[in-house]
Specification:
The protein has ten helices and ten strands. It is of the alpha+beta class and about 300 residues long. Among the domains are: about 130 residues, Jelly Rolls, CATH 2.60.120.10; about 60 residues, Arc Repressor Mutant, subunit A (Orthogonal Bundle). Strands 1, 2, 3, 4, 5, 6, 7, 8, 9 and 10 form a ten-stranded antiparallel beta sheet that branches. Strand 1 and strand 2 form a beta hairpin. It starts with 5 loop residues before the first strand and ends with a helix.
Amino acid sequence: MGGGCERERDVQVSEAGPLAVPGIDQPCKFGFVVRAAQVGDAVISEVSNESFAARTATGTSRYWVLMHRIRRGAWRSSQPGGQSQLITAPAGSFTVCHEGPPLRLEADPGTVATVLYLPASALGIPAGRGHVTASARSAEARVLMAHADMAREAVGDLTPAGARGARDALLELARAVLWGGLDGAEPRLAAALARAAMQAADDRLADADLSPALLAGELNVSVRTLHRAFAAAGEPVAAYIRRRRLEQARMELAARPGRPDISVVAARWRFADSSHFARAFKKQYGQTPSQFARASKSSEQG
């Protein structure tokens, strides 16, 4: 993983037996698909596995930090020979592995995770920082992974300067996870902060209390900082929430064409009343909700 190398690649592995993987002793068993992007000396990967059992190599973790977000399934780690208690990282958890004794690693079939492979020297991690498991919903973890997702998706289009910026922001956010204290006012983090807030909003679109203040509180930043991040993204917070609610309402109307109860749909997606909903819907899509529902029914019948 040389500095200045930015690329994306797909790796499909399905073997039982020795397999050369950095930081992993042999023998081990794998059956997984990896979609990875390398930005400088950092690697961002999405891993979907059918089977995984291995042991980390002695000493390698001194130089690399592995940060995992478990999206589905669970990973487990323990010292070989049962010398320590088994640690389970279920879906929704976030783990950091650095400078500890060799570990035996296993994963449930169907486990999906985002894995960051970061240089320990660049993070400035002191000795003794070992295995840590925390919630993936912490403000720092959510913004870090939002940035990792954006960097992985855009890696093929990054200029050398853009790649350096993406790498530096990734390490800045990784430090925030390790020691807390996310600096939401840091300009390089605005896009990641906005994306993390969008993801948080998408999870709560049907909640009556969804607001910029609530999102700012979840991400441990000020409302002003949140508004500034959305301004950089080109859409105000309230406009994003309204647009996503309209999209959900439109999907519901399309799934139930004919004569749906517009007032029920409006209430479900937190519009003040059916008239307000109809005006917003027509402004967004050029049709009232009733017109759209009738057109959807005609399309299905045709």
